């Protein structure tokens, strides 16, 4: 599932983008879930599901409302966003809170390359080769207290640098949260780059979250704060539209968004007439994560 490399050698100097796309072992993370998700008879879709999206597709079709509400707005508007210096604060119910410069925050962790499926609530998906480290490593270092049941994440608040924060699109700053067991799961990644390069501004530079079995809006971008809390956080989209966006946001084809179905998805990059594929429960990661939700009513806790 992983390609490991020395942490002091940029993967961009080891592996080209074409090698990422063609390396079979690198695709192993998504192969099983992707194969199971296909509508019968769509052989072309099967091949497409195994193939990471291109750099251009990943970096020009984004949700990042701090830089615009259109899919192409972030790539147009985030080019001048300055991500150095950058400070990360760890606070709340933890024995080792602190404030760190980005480089000091990342330095203790060995970076890994992983291919994850990214499923958006609007019924589109990508396959993305992220670079990052497991969130649980941060949590282990922070040593949360017994009172810490959730981890809350908060995005930078700076309307001068994030111009759409001047508009009342959401209650800024953007915030999200995970239950502690979700945050500790080895699939949950703190992302610093993609295709072996530093994370582009429009994709959430310099540090974002990725939780591959959840809808994309859970994967908060441009993080400046992690807070360990006892009570479940009210995240930005929950606050904006609680009947549409729940706290858990697990990919679930049996629970439709009030305005569209989640039963199928269309892969970005396949063209306007690319075949839709069946959406898999937990985005194809059910074998790894389903046990965390045993006994829960996933229509209520959506």
CATH architecture, by name, is Alpha-Beta Complex
Q: Which range best describes the helical content: under 10%, 10-25%, 25-40%, 40-55%, 55-70% or over 70%?
A: 10-25%
Low-pLDDT segments, ≥5 res: 1-16, 24-48
Structural class: alpha+beta
Sheet with the most strands? 8 strands, mixed
Under the CATH scheme, which class?
Alpha Beta
Note the beta-strand portion: 15-25%
CA-atom Rg in angstroms = 18 Å
Count of helical regions: 10
Relevant CATH superfamily: Oxidoreductase, molybdopterin-binding domain
Description:
With 302 residues, the protein is α+β, with helices and mostly antiparallel strands. It has a single domain, classed as Sulfite Oxidase, Chain A, domain 2, CATH 3.90.420. The chain is built from ten helices and 13 strands. The chain has helices at 17-22, 28-36, 43-50, 55-60, 73-77, 102-106, 135-142, 180-184, 236-240, 286-289, and strands at 3-4, 87-92, 98-101, 112-120, 124-134, 150-155, 175-179, 189-194, 197-198, 208-210, 223-229, 264-267, 277-278. Strand 4 (112-120) and strand 5 (124-134) form a beta hairpin. Mean pLDDT is 88; it is low at 1-16 and 24-48.
Write the layout of secondary structure elements.
Layout: E1 3-4, H1 17-22, H2 28-36, H3 43-50, H4 55-60, H5 73-77, E2 87-92, E3 98-101, H6 102-106, E4 112-120, E5 124-134, H7 135-142, E6 150-155, E7 175-179, H8 180-184, E8 189-194, E9 197-198, E10 208-210, E11 223-229, H9 236-240, E12 264-267, E13 277-278, H10 286-289
Parallel strand pairs: 2-11, 5-12
Antiparallel strand pairs: 1-4, 2-3, 4-5, 5-8, 6-7, 6-11, 8-9, 8-10, 12-13
